[in-house]
Design goal:
alpha/beta
């Protein structure tokens, strides 16, 4: 029987099949092959107890996408949630995450939440920058359910992972989509205006046929060191058009003169602040690479 792993707690896996939900364990051979089943895996199971709905995972089908931290397979879309206020928008983290989504080949959506708190409406500038690049940007006020329907439409027919710093309102958004409390909500600490992460397990929630949401703790801090510094520009998708105008082969787009990307930035075709964040991420990756050797 085939199924989809929708939850993993310790060594037990909840597998959704056409015959219902089964609590499963994994065969010992996976440990020997150093493979661990993860949420999002499509698997083959053998039922061991139909009454108690128990089964064993026999095979893990080939993964289209695999993320190491948090362990998650076969997602097709990442929803990056950014808070317009409290906490303030972390665009450096967003750009790292967008580069990672491009690198693993999944679609990315940006949600600007808590727009009601942003009296200066700075979220409009953020939306303009990322919409121009080609990303879908959805404005939401999760507590008032504004933007929830638009977001639901964007999630259809995808296995969606939600990502964002603690306190940006991921749980409130997910609860709003289901119109009930699915996930625990994190309170923003008044003292330091930073969120306390309350979600601890990865789980796929089914919205409707073929549409799932993964609530993923720890996703906001993921490491993008799999991307080599020299390749980073490829995952800032608006840079690719201008990279061919660089004078030097192997241009880093940082210090060189006659760089197509820097030229485009000076002409206003690339957002200056985003270019500066690219430089910062590049230097961070380069430093890590040098430390390796």
């Amino acid at each position: 029987m085939q199924g989809l792993i929708i939850e993993n707690i310790s060594n037990l896996y909840q597998v959704k099949t056409e015959e219902g939900l089964y609590e499963t364990t994994a065969r010992g051979k996976f440990k020997k092959d150093e493979i661990t089943p993860v949420v999002g895996d499509k698997v083959e199971i053998t039922v061991t107890d139909e009454i108690q709905k128990k089964a064993v995972i026999e095979e893990i089908y080939e993964r289209q996408v695999y993320i190491k931290r948090p362990k998650l397979a076969n997602i097709t879309q990442i929803v990056f949630v950014v808070s317009s206020k409290d906490p303030k928008p972390d665009l450096y983290m967003l750009d790292k995450q967008l580069a990672f989504a491009e690198y693993i080949g999944v679609n990315a959506i940006i949600v600007l939440n808590k727009t009601d708190l942003d009296q200066k409406e700075e979220f409009k500038n953020i939306k303009q920058v990322y919409s121009k690049i080609g990303y879908t940007v959805i404005l939401t006020d999760a507590k008032q359910r504004k933007g929830i329907e638009e977001l639901k439409q964007a999630l259809k027919n995808n296995v969606n992972a939600f990502s964002g710093n603690s306190g940006v309102g991921k749980s409130t958004l997910i609860n709003g989509i289901f119109n009930k409390d699915i996930t625990q909500e994190g309170e923003i600490s008044k003292k330091n205006k930073r969120g306390k992460n309350t979600t601890t397990a990865i789980k796929l929630y089914e919205i409707d046929d073929n549409t799932y949401i993964a609530d993923t703790p720890g996703f906001s801090t993921f490491d993008i060191s799999e991307i080599e510094s020299k390749d980073l520009y490829q995952y800032f998708k608006e840079f690719n058009t201008y990279a061919k105008n660089c004078e030097f082969i192997g241009c880093t787009h940082i210090k060189e003169e006659n760089c197509g990307i820097k030229q485009a930035m000076q002409e206003g075709k690339i957002d200056t602040a985003r270019y500066e964040r690219f430089c910062k991420i590049y230097n961070e990756l380069k430093e890590k690479e040098e430390r390796k050797w």
